[in-house]
Amino acid sequence: IYHKLGRYNEALADLKRILILDPAQFNAYRFRVEILSLTGRFEEAERDIQLLFKNNRGEIHRSQVVRGNYYADKGEYQKALELALECEILTKKQNENELIQQNYNSLRKIYHALNNNNLAYLYASKLIVLKDSFFEKTNIKDINELQTKYESEKKEQEITLLQIERKSSSQKSKSERNIRNLIIGSISLIAFLIALFAALLF
Predict the structure, then answer these.
(1) Is the pLDDT of residue 33 over 70?
(2) Which of 103, 115, 125, 138 has the fewest CB atoms inside 10 Å of its own CB, making it the most exposed?
C-alpha cells in the first residue's frame, strides 16, 4: 500500500520486516529493488538483486525479471533489453502469468525509451491481451467455484430437509399410535365400567 502511495520510507520499513521473517520472499525483494531504483539508491538495489539470486536459486527466471526492470529504471536500456528478451523465453517456459505480464510491461517501457514505438505498441498489446485472458480465466474459475458451492449447499439443504421430514413422519406416527392406544384404552375402560355397573344392578 505504502509503495503505491509513494510513501517509500514506510514501504521499505515494511519490506525489511517481511524479509527478516522470510529472507527468500520474492515479491518483497521485487518491490524493494523497484523502490530503491526509483529513489536513485542503485547500490542498495544491486545488493538486493544479489541477495535475490542467492535466496531464490531455483527460480532464476524470477530474479532475471527483477534484474531487467532494475536496469530499465537505471536507464541502461540495452542491458535491460537483453535480460527482458531472455526472460520472455524463460517466463513462458515456466508459464507464470504474473511474471510474463511484468516482463511484457518492462519490454514496453524499454522499447518506448529506445524510441522503437512499433515494438513498444506490440508489447503493450500483448500485455492487454494477456491481462484480459487472465481476467477471463479468473472469472470462469470464480463462477465454477460458486456453482460448486451452490450445488454443495443445495445438496446439504436437501439432506437436512429429508431428515426433518423423516423426523416429522416418525413423530407423527408415534403421536398417532399414542392417540390410537388412548382411544382403545378409553373404550376398554368404558366397557369395563358398563359391565361393572350392570353387574351391580343385577
Answers:
(1) yes
(2) 115
pLDDT digits (tens, 9 = 90+) for 94-111: 777 888 888 888 889 899
Task: Tell me the C-alpha distance between 33 and 30, whole Å.
Answer: 5
Nearest by Cα to 108 from 121, 99, 95, 98: 121
Report d(CA 70, CA 48) in Å as an integer: 11
* Alpha helices (H) in the chain, listed in sequence order: 2-5, 8-21, 26-38, 42-55, 60-74, 77-94, 97-113, 117-201
Burial of 54 (0-12, 13-18, 19+ CB in 10 A): exposed
In whole angstroms, what is the distance from residue 71 CA to residue 158 CA?
Answer: 61
Residue type, 1: I
